[in-house]
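W.,

You were right to be curious about this one. When I first looked at the sequence I had no strong expectations either way, so I just let the prediction run and decided to look at it fresh. Below is the sequence, 308 residues in total, followed by the output.
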Amino acid sequence: MRGPLFYAKILLFGEYGIIKDSKGLAIPFNSYKGALKTAQNLTGEAKKSNENLKSFYNYLTNLDSSLVSFNLESFQEDISSGMYFDSSIPQGYGVGSSGALVASIYDKYANDKITVLENLTRDKLVKLKEIFSVMESFFHGKSSGLDPLNSYLSIPILINSKENIEATGIPSQKEGKGAVFLLDSEQVGETEPMVSIFMNKMKNEGFRKMLSEEFVTYTDACIEDFLKGNVTSLFGNVKKLSKVVLANFKPMIPNAFHKVWEKGIQTNDYYLKLCGSGGGGYILGFTEDFEKAKQSLKNYKLEIVYRF
């Protein structure tokens, strides 16, 4: 048995802000993917994944069935037969490893599921996001549901607010010099502690003010620029966003990258921002000249996501 493929995702803009109802823009990232598989003799990662699915099964048995219900009998049988999630998506890297798993379980076992083929009205998208939020909370303690939604639909998604999300198109890539890229911190990040730090910071009035007046403003402007293809304006706003993140989200940036982050702002070779909750994993980079950024970051592993 092999299930359909579910891809990684990249939240280009909106990390943390979407918890507080700012805009967000997520795109599928097809370099990494996962699928449900079954094997007779499980070892290593496959065995670990199978154990994880058992815990997830127990969690799903206690979910509010008025929101979503599953064919739990079939799910339990498949786990007993050696089912696991075979994935190339790195865990703790901010590219949606648990999201792809959640999407695959919903796809295979949800009763009356909303399918990708039907007319995806705003109400259906909001309902799917709500279902995925509850499902993915098993992994992170609190989830927006956006990662599984993106993985399940495999199309760019624009979040205008919690109750207003839509499928969107993004400008087609050009063979230009500019790029969005991933910078590998070579450290694993954990979502739950990072979200806890953020929630504690939200108790501070100054932090809340910065979030609504600066972080959300620049995030929303970046999304608008990106979708309209206003590249010059986009880089101006990404630079402002990068500065705000460095000044206010230091715990989410691995210590070894504080100076690297600062260097990008000072030289304009590249600008960095969080990819997911931060704390490790990938850092997202934006540059108007990828060759220059590559030279500037020659000691690090970079991977292109999108070309301008």
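Here's what jumped out at me. The mean pLDDT is 93. And, maybe more interesting for your project: The radius of gyration is 19 Å.

Coffee later to discuss?

I.
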